[in-house]
Specification:
By secondary structure, the chain is an all-alpha fold. Helix content is 96%, strand content 0%. It contains 2 helices and no strands. α1 runs antiparallel to α2. Keywords: Coiled coil.
């Protein structure tokens, strides 16, 4: 009886050591997955910050475009007034040419800003897509972490 008890104790000690090693590995894996989850969370926060930055850029560009369009309209009105007044003096013709040049420059700026807004919109869409993918990955990792925790709990029990 003593011999069988000793053998049984040795078997239980070995089994206990194997379970302790498995528990340590499981805890290490859980810690690593927690770290990865934290990193993903930080990445998501960065994407949110970038989204708000892109939104602010779009708002700023839109307000600049509106201001330039208003200036352009003002210049158009001035040009029309000069035409209506039919001032033929040299000064008015120089002013007219100057206003036409300024109008062309503003039109080019408006076009550039509109192109920039389109690029920012595309970038924003890309960021939203990336954010959605990161959220899906985060959810999958949470499921894996929960599964590992459940496995660890079962092993410990």
């Amino acid at each position: 009886d003593r011999d069988t008890d000793k053998k049984r104790i040795e078997e239980l000690l070995e089994e206990n050591m194997v379970l302790e090693i498995a528990q340590k590995q499981s805890m290490n894996e859980s810690a690593h997955l927690g770290w990865e989850l934290e990193q993903l969370s930080k990445s998501t926060d960065l994407a949110d910050t970038r989204k708000s930055f892109v939104f602010e850029l779009n708002e700023c560009a839109s307000s600049r475009i509106l201001k330039l369009e208003k200036d352009n309209q003002s210049l158009q009105n001035t040009i029309q007034e000069l035409r209506d007044a039919s001032l033929t003096s040299r000064e008015s013709s120089l002013k007219f040419v100057e206003l036409e040049k300024e109008n062309q420059q503003l039109s080019k700026k408006i076009e550039k800003l509109q192109n920039q807004i389109e690029k920012e919109k595309q970038s924003n869409q890309d960021l939203e897509t990336l954010s959605e993918e990161l959220i899906k990955d985060k959810e999958q990792l949470q499921v894996v972490v929960e599964t590992l925790k459940a496995d660890k709990d079962r092993q410990v029990q």
